Amino acid sequence: MAQAQVSEPASIRQIFFEDWKLGKTDSFMTYWVPMSYKIGVVYLLAIYFGQKLMSYRKPFQLDNTLAVWNFLFSLFSGIAAYKLVPELVSVFRKDGFVASYCDNAEYYTDPSTGFWGWAFVMSKAPELGDTMFLVLRKKPVIFMHWYHHVLTFIYAQITYSEHQAWARWSLALNLIVHTVMYFYFGIRALKINTPRPVAKFITTIQIVQFVISCYIFGHLVFIKSYDLVPGCQVSWNVLSIGGLMYLSYLYLFAEFFYKAYIKKGGRAKAE
Q1: Residue 126 sits in which domain range?
Q2: Long-range contacts of 93-98 (CB under 8 A, 24+ apart)
Q3: Residue 158: which residues within 8 A CB-CB, separation 6 or more?
Q4: Each residue of 55-76: pLDDT tens digit?
Q5: Which residues does the annotation mark as catalytic?
Q6: What's the pLDDT at 266?
Q7: Within 10 A of 136 (CB to CB), how many other CB atoms are there?
Q8: Is the pLDDT of residue 24 over 90?
Q9: Is residue 140 part of a domain?
Q10: Number of domains, the chain
């Protein structure tokens, strides 16, 4: 009896430097998704022990490095948005609002949207480095920050690996917000003064992102429950986890907005 051959996962090199194909990325993601859980645990441990270690020493002066870090993320987000947002607009205009989050069409198989969607998902790993800058500079790491980072990182891997149509909106909204947000953080890292309403605007567009996401998730639950759109490409596990995740984000960011801009009437710190 012949032994079954176990296929090796595609490497990062194959995905980046050979002709992009969804099969290669799917092969890589079957190994990467379980790894993302481990990375999430390491991330949380790094925060805890990093803060313990930093309590014995002075904060690192990393303003210039942090500025470059933020500007690079802003640049990446802008390029990825340029590649992905037009596809969302095209589907929205051609097939309608519901189809834009129920039918993934060629979103994952098209070399452009498929690759840049994957690149966005992979960017969530180095994005965890945002927190390490806080730790090394001895800045507060609030619950909202680490909770949002680790959960978004893990959820993004799952969503992409299961080819969810909803990702079309998730990626577009996040990339638009991050293009603006990381550019602002880069400016702040250089100690350049910005108008007071800018920080408020950043938090506002984040909240708008979560409101749109919660609406879509609510509609998807309704669609799936009554099978209103046969073949709607969203799974219950992604839907339930994502719905709770975005509701929690909306609550946390709205609470932050209230405390930072309404109750205190000031500007929240960029960190």
Answers
A1: 21-263
A2: 98/219, 98/223, 98/229
A3: 33, 237, 238, 241
A4: 999 999 999 999 999 999 999 9
A5: 148
A6: 52
A7: 19
A8: no
A9: yes
A10: 1
